[in-house]
Specification:
Layout (H helix, E strand, L loop, with lengths): L1 H22 L13 H14 L13 H12 L2 H19 L11 H13 L3 H18 L2 H6 L17
Helix pairs in contact: 3-6, 4-6, 5-6
Length: 166
């Protein structure tokens, strides 16, 4: 009887372990954005070009691209998400004008011209770049090292001095 119970539990646990990797699919991480992995990578490169990521001096618990896309996915209205995605599609067509390459394969001069054109435009392309820039800055300025060493921020609401005479 015990042997049957052991075999049954082994079969059930091995079945659960086999199906476990299929339960978490990274492609549906940002449900409102519907971006594929290469597009996530491109947004990461744009963010890194605007503000260089320095995980050694300013470590954060999450990657910058995850912070940006989580903020857009869960905090923006549907109209803003649509405008962001429209700006991203305009950005991709702008990149294609420079030799049909990926953004990270372009020269620095071409990257600068694409980004400066995007910041100078008055449409969804500007919305795309402004949000990438502001969310990249927010991710940087909310890192623990920046807040402690540059802003002298204390994470405890009030300092406790127990041996002070009144």
């Amino acid at each position: 009887m015990k042997r049957r119970l052991v075999i049954k539990s082994l079969v059930l646990s091995s079945g659960a372990l086999i199906t476990l990797p299929y339960c978490s699919n990274e492609n549906f991480k940002y449900s409102n954005l519907n971006l594929i992995d290469s597009e996530l990578e491109t947004i990461s490169y744009v963010s890194d070009f605007i503000l260089k990521d320095n995980q050694y001096n300013f470590p954060t618990p999450d990657k910058r691209v995850d912070f940006i896309l989580n903020t857009i996915n869960y905090c923006y209205k549907n109209e803003e998400i649509k405008k962001f995605l429209d700006g991203f599609s305009k950005f991709k067509t702008e990149v294609k004008y420079y030799g049909n390459k990926k953004f990270n394969n372009l020269s620095i001069i071409d990257k600068k011209s694409i980004i400066s054109n995007g910041f100078n435009s008055n449409d969804s392309l500007n919305f795309f770049f402004e949000n990438i820039k502001s969310l990249s800055l927010r991710h940087f300025t909310t890192s623990e090292n920046y807040m402690k060493n540059y802003l002298n921020y204390e994470f405890i609401p009030n300092r406790y001095l127990g041996t002070v005479k009144i």
